[in-house]
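Dear all,

This email documents one entry for the complex benchmark we are building for the journal club exercise. For each entry we list the sequence lines for every component of the assembly. Then comes the predicted three-dimensional structure of the complex as a token string, followed by one or two observations. Please use this as the template for your own entries, and keep the labels exactly as they appear.
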Amino acid sequence: MKNFLTSMFYGPINHTEFMDGLELAGNQVKSGGVFRADNLFTLGKSLGFLEDEAFMAAFQENSKHSDPRQQEMNQSIIWRTHVLSWAAAGGLNLEGDFVECACYKGTSAKILCEYLDFNKTGKHYYLYDLFQHEQGMDHHAMPDHGSSLYDYVRQRFVEYPNVHVIKGAVPDILQTVAPEKIAFMHLDINSAAAEIGALEMLFDRIVPGGILILDDYGWIGYKEQKEAEDPFFAERGYHVLELPTGQGMVIK
Ligand SMILES: C[S@@+](CC[C@H](N)C(=O)[O-])C[C@H]1O[C@@H](n2cnc3c(N)ncnc32)[C@H](O)[C@@H]1O
């Protein structure tokens, strides 16, 4: 069995001692299948996505970064990206388009486009983001935010004419452009108010069987999102499945 080993763990008081402990624990398992990344440590698991050649090719190609730490962070979310790939692939058999609020550099969307050969699907993919951070804005700054990010992301999808890269604040921008039917939706805004706004606009448009992935749902650091989203879904008769990756999943 393959292992997947990184040092991306957030929160330990002494990171070196913590990693030494995980190393020691992993070495106790002769079967392998050790996953160590993104605050997730598993032993003796199949990790089948590591054997999926199309997924791994798309993932490795698009998670490159010139900064080694950013590259390791990109790598560390492989299991989350596998979840997205699985959910989006399920959406291919349904009516409706794909949505991502918000896309940042477009990395996960690009992986999905390559993995699913998106140009052959006949679907549209709507990617929203502010692409920059200015003082006074609600969301937190990210390293590649800036005036050129929007053009960078548009260029990244130039070979995918049905991918629409849209600059604007969610939820307001959704009034201007959004699909009528949605087969797969990824919410990753890191903001409870913006995510609830997006859900109020778009949740009803997800078709039966369509899958919604909430990137931050289970992370304690973003607990405001869970606290806002649980009542939203309860009112509509849904209950979010919290995944070990920190994502939440709802099947419509
Ligand atoms: C964690 S990143 C998204 C990463 C991306 N989903 C991926 O998989 O690579 C969060 C993004 O949310 C964007 N954002 C925050 N508030 C927003 C809002 N109200 N409207 C649009 N984008 C927003 C930020 O600009 C940032 O790029």
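Observations: The two ends are 34 Å apart (CA to CA). The longest helix spans residues 78-91.
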